[in-house]
Amino acid sequence: MENKLSRRAVLGTGAGVLAAGAIAATASPVAASAQGRPAGGPNVIPADRIGLQIFTVRQLIGADYANLEISLEALHDAGVRELELAGDYYGKTTAQLKSLIQSYGLRIVSNHFGPRGANLPNPWSTYEGRMQIFEDAQTLGRFPYVGTGSAFGFPGGGAGENNSDGFKAMAEAFNECGEHAVSQGFGGFFFHNHDREFAYENGEPLFNILLERTDPRYVKFEVDLGWVSVAGEDPYWWIKNHGKRFIAFHIKDIKWDPNGNRTAAAGTKAAGKKFRFVDVGKGDIDWTRALSALKDLRDYRFFLEHDDAGNLTLNPPGAANTVWRGCSTLEQINTSGRK
Q1: Contact 325, 281 (CB under 8 A)
Q2: In whole angstroms, what separates CA 188 from the centre of its chain?
């Protein structure tokens, strides 16, 4: 017998079975307008721009990837249309993975290329490594931008390097990666933040160094608004003041909790404060306010994420319910009264 769960079993992880009925009634993809933007108004997230960082459902997929196809079906049913990979191709070639994901009505639009942990090789550091990244990106989905979700392997990305000198070196490396990406037909290189980049030195967050010392022609940012909040920063302020450098957002919610399982990074405004991740819409972030800083929501991508979604101790309803809840929240956002 194959070691695979039925779709009902996947959705039934924790309280996910309660969401199964609601999952079916979700938005369909929206056709692109003649101007190239998704159809719809500037104050709502287009249904076909609702995305997911697939790391969120890694436990559903399973360590042996046995439930990959069932999970993809569940994601589409929940309302997800765009996927961002987390560096794993699930034992398939890039072409095979693209074909499989497309067969479930989804498209790959981004990936976090690069090392997933400390002391692992960083393909961005060599010409050959970058060329492999560019080749993979073209095959997976002709990505507009190529980037990474980790500072590991970059100057300034290691332990003890969370300082201005390290971040100046990191910015220089990002510029080099971005210039190479543009030369290969991409819009540039992007970097995805965590909370450590908002540690303060000399009265300002280190993230400012990345903004100031990277070339806007080559380097953009995929901003994780959950980690921005964990650092004690205001997502609205950062979008309002630096949104032109941002191409996409991770939509991740948090709940401040003295008994939380996570702690804000040293040096940040919220350093040492305990918190936990929760489903989008159930935490302390005002998503309508935060996203109202965007002039036109159709110009960006939005990837749902929950780092602990599959941990049934921390998130008893399970990852499938997390995705459904997140899609439902994004579909209901309307910033027209907040601009």
Answers
A1: yes
A2: 17
Q: What are phi and psi of 124, to 5 degrees?
A: -70, -15
CA distance 65 to 58: 9
**How many secondary structure helices (H) and strands (E) does the chain include?**
12, 13
Residue 234 — φ and ψ, nearest 5°? -100, 110
One-letter amino acid at 77 equals D
Beta strands (DSSP E) in 38-169 are: 50-53, 82-85, 107-111, 146-148
b/e map of 85-106 (b: 16 or more CB within 10 Å)? Answer: beebeeeeebeebbeebeebeb
Write the pLDDT tens digit of every residue in 252-311: 999 999 999 999 999 999 999 999 999 999 999 999 999 999 999 999 999 999 999 999
pLDDT value at residue 338:
77
**Cβ atoms within 10 Å of 226's Cβ, excluding its own:** 26
Where is 223: in which H helix or E strand? strand 219-224
Rounded Cα distance between 70 and 9, Å, is 10
* 8 Å CB contact between 214 and 188: no
Among 125, 80, 57, 70, smallest CA distance to 100 is for 70
Amino acid at 88: D
Q: How far apart are CA 237 and CA 226, in angstroms?
A: 14
**CA–CA separation, 271 and 27 (whole Å):** 39
Quick one: CA torsion of 236, 237, 239, 240, rounded to 10 degrees?
Answer: 110
- Domains contained in the chain, CATH given: 7-16+44-332 (3.20.20.150)
Label residue 241 by pLDDT band (50, 70, 90).
very high
Contact 25, 324 (CB under 8 A): no
pLDDT tens string 149-171: 999 999 999 888 999 999 999 99
Q: What Å distances lie between residue 45 and 35, 136, 213, CA to CA?
A: 17, 28, 31
Distances (CA, A) of 255 to 126, 227, 261, 285, 332: 40, 12, 11, 8, 21
